[in-house]
Amino acid sequence: MKNSKLYQYVNKNAAAFGLFIAILSVSTAAIFIRLAQQNLPSLVIATNRLVLAMLFLAPFSIPKVLKEKHLITKGDYSLLILSGVLLGFHFASWVTSLEYTNVVSSTVLVTTSPVWVTLFSPLVLKERLPKTFTIGLIIAVAGILIVSFSNACAFSVGGLQCSLEGNMLGQEALKGNFLALVGAWCASAYMMCGRKVRGHLSNQSYSFIVYTIAALTLLTISLSSHQPLLQVHGTDWIWLVMLALIPQIVGHSLLNWALGKLPAAYVSLSLLGEPPGSALLAYIFLSEKPTLLQIIGSVVIIYGIFRANKPQRRQVEAEVEITP
């Protein structure tokens, strides 16, 4: 079986397939959050998301963590704590950003993490980035800029017209965009920390430990600010449970798994596929119709991802450890 062509193909492309499923899963997060925000504060949503994910994983993950406890070094403890705290702040800032700006702008800005990871990975993680990746990143960032200014600019009979009074640059939207950017910074640092630990710790153990620390971080923030954590009723529980199961346990856990097989910059770049996915879901479920510029920008982003991850087998296999 292990010598079959099908097994070898799946094994060789497992990381890419895992990332694809991860992006589909995390793209649903903004939709569930917007639905839950109709009745719940943002911190309540972020906190319950992580607490529920931790509780769902606990029965399966605690035995695994105890079994691998000897693999965790003294340096790992500080990285795990830092990863969890950063993840908690990532969700707190990004979920709150959706109160002030639209789904596309928020998800586009929060997924600028590849820019920051690319800037610091060579210094922090000693990961070399091929030229193809850099070109793809530049293309994807161009798409990010197009989508970012899509609410301030529009096509008309006279051509492209931009207004500084557009929603993108309004006071409320500006606050939301900044919070989404803070979320991107936290996510970038979280990925670089995770890349260092995931090399010798299983995905299940790493994910559970980090989710637990993130949940405790959010609980501390919510309790200190007197958030109504248990005042959740009716269908709001459905959105919170879906948030914990699909984008968190499936999506983020697959991203953590990919960090053990691919450089952090590759994993974070793949997150640029989230804005187009979220935009499509927002159009279907929230009636948020994307503008022409948002569609163009999304296509550019997807092409950038494709270009950056264009198969260069010799170069990739030299840098990435492929395990069964």
Automatic annotation (TrEMBL):
<feature type="transmembrane region" description="Helical">
    <location>
        <begin position="205"/>
        <end position="225"/>
    </location>
</feature>
<feature type="transmembrane region" description="Helical">
    <location>
        <begin position="79"/>
        <end position="97"/>
    </location>
</feature>
<comment type="similarity">
    <text>Belongs to the EamA transporter family.</text>
</comment>
<feature type="transmembrane region" description="Helical">
    <location>
        <begin position="177"/>
        <end position="193"/>
    </location>
</feature>
<keyword id="KW-0472">Membrane</keyword>
<feature type="transmembrane region" description="Helical">
    <location>
        <begin position="39"/>
        <end position="58"/>
    </location>
</feature>
<feature type="transmembrane region" description="Helical">
    <location>
        <begin position="237"/>
        <end position="259"/>
    </location>
</feature>
<feature type="transmembrane region" description="Helical">
    <location>
        <begin position="292"/>
        <end position="309"/>
    </location>
</feature>
<dbReference type="InterPro" id="IPR000620">
    <property type="entry name" value="EamA_dom"/>
</dbReference>
<keyword id="KW-1133">Transmembrane helix</keyword>
<dbReference type="InterPro" id="IPR037185">
    <property type="entry name" value="EmrE-like"/>
</dbReference>
<keyword id="KW-0812">Transmembrane</keyword>
<dbReference type="GO" id="GO:0016020">
    <property type="term" value="C:membrane"/>
</dbReference>
<feature type="transmembrane region" description="Helical">
    <location>
        <begin position="103"/>
        <end position="125"/>
    </location>
</feature>
<feature type="domain" description="EamA">
    <location>
        <begin position="175"/>
        <end position="306"/>
    </location>
</feature>
<feature type="domain" description="EamA">
    <location>
        <begin position="16"/>
        <end position="148"/>
    </location>
</feature>
<protein>
    <submittedName>
        <fullName>Drug/metabolite transporter (DMT)-like permease</fullName>
    </submittedName>
</protein>
<dbReference type="Pfam" id="PF00892">
    <property type="entry name" value="EamA"/>
</dbReference>
<feature type="transmembrane region" description="Helical">
    <location>
        <begin position="137"/>
        <end position="157"/>
    </location>
</feature>
<feature type="transmembrane region" description="Helical">
    <location>
        <begin position="266"/>
        <end position="286"/>
    </location>
</feature>
